[in-house]
Specification:
It is a single chain. The protein is mostly helical. Helices cover about 60% and strands about 5% of the residues. Strand 2 and strand 3 form a beta hairpin.
Amino acid sequence: MQVLLKNLTMTSQETSDALKKSFGIHTLRNKFSGRKLFRDNYFNLVMGDFEILDNTRNKHFFENIVEFARDQQDINLLPALRKIAYNPALGESIRQQASETMEMIEEGSTSPVLAGKADEPKGYREKIANARKMLSGHRYPQTTEILRLLREKSPELKKLALYLVGKFKMTDMSQEVCECLNNPEISSDAVRVLESLSKEIRTELRKYCLASSGNIVTGRNIIRILGKTCTRDNTEFLFSLLWSNSRRIRETALSALVNCGFKVTDNDRGRLTRMIYDTFGLISWILAAEVCLEKNIDTLLLGEMNNEYSRWKDFASGLLSLLPVHGDKSGQEHRHAGKTDEYSEYLSRISDIVFSDRIKLNSTVLTGGGPYLKMLKKLQKFFPVDVPSYKELLEDLINRDYNTISIWTKVRALRNIAAIEDENLAESVVALLFSPEQILQEEAARLIARTDDKLYSRVEERLRNDEHKKKLDLIINGKVNEKNLLYNKVIFLKSCFPSIQEEKLYFLASLLQYVSGSEEGIKNNLKFALIWMMSLENPIPQVHIIYDSQDSISAEILNSEGGYGYVLPFSALSEFEYQYPEDMMDILKYIDDNEE
């Protein structure tokens, strides 16, 4: 088992993350990435960290620095402008623009933008200028000044307040910065500031993580920050989070512990061993489900259960890596007696089965029960799991806890139920109409519509009367446009971003807009968006990346027979990054590949 533990220290997710890190955003050339690079690195540039200036050749990034500095007369960017102006590796044009902008700022020239826009609050520009002046200076700001800026409605003023906290190491304001993690518009700025203070505010970060246990996004952000400072107090706290109710919190905490090289102490070894054992029990249940699906030749749902298996196997792999191996001075130096030894022996044998005997199958080619069944029989020596009937399995999947089985697997199960055949299943499906997940509501309505719409009539009045309720009504009445269903939006996005899990794409699908009609119908509503257009004659999407209303798109497909499109505003990408920052690189690469 010791050899096995050493070989399992990097999960497939960690391998993917390592590949993404080697191909970072600084290597991309598109305009969206250039804007994001500037947005993400403004604090570093202000703090005198110019590494990004040497690591990227994205011309849009440098253009954003120069344009912002010129329009805003931002004296904080003078050092960065100087680096650009005297960098012989850059083009003559951008170097000249940087030099001219630098001279303009130093001479105190007035930019027309500084006069203010019609829709800006009174005194806004003056507040911005004063905050930037404070940021460029050396006077330690008063706490009241920072609080005043944080109370402003403007995200730009809030960002400057955060940068002031970071620059002057105002650790006494760490809680106020933590509260900014809940605001998607400034969350990434709060993360950077907290990272710069993380060594001094470890206790405050841990307290806020516990206080915000209901906010998974905030919790994950703090876990990532704590995971970059691998002190014993931090890793012990992260270890405690492995027992969180949230699957995403557990996985994020485990990733941080693995990256820190954490090993459990004697006191915690038994507790961790039991968690590993329980995880293998869940894996055994998933394997039994796979046997059932293989027998019933359900290739689609089998593919989803394979994904569930891999995800839980990665989790088990990470847990195993936390156990000290023989000779590890950080762990136990003697053998445990009694029950713990038995558990260790069991885990060794189970691990050999799960990690050595698993045969990867092409989900479109089923063998009638060979490899899955053989593996299950080995695990049944340790776990009392039986192969369910197909009907039992589908009902079990839609009722399983969200932190055990993903939403997308539940959706696939609902799609596979031809009709509701008994009262128990009817109750389960009707309950999903009240689920907080809209995709489950839609799929439950589809199942009710193809069974008995009277089930919907029973609870219709109890449903919240909003736009989504109108969509459910259309589903029940058979009048919904299938292309506008969240399920089909997820399938479409998966074809564009195949490496991102469907459960994450579901969040993006909820922000994806379905359109049909003229080119003007799109352009009147949006700029800064990804647009795909398709038709019956041309099913391969034409991709358009729109940055302003002057960008041209072809309406030929949209106006042809069956023409339609999907529009994804760039603001949706920012919201997606707030939820799933680890997957943003895949989208940025897609934009890079499709930008003309």
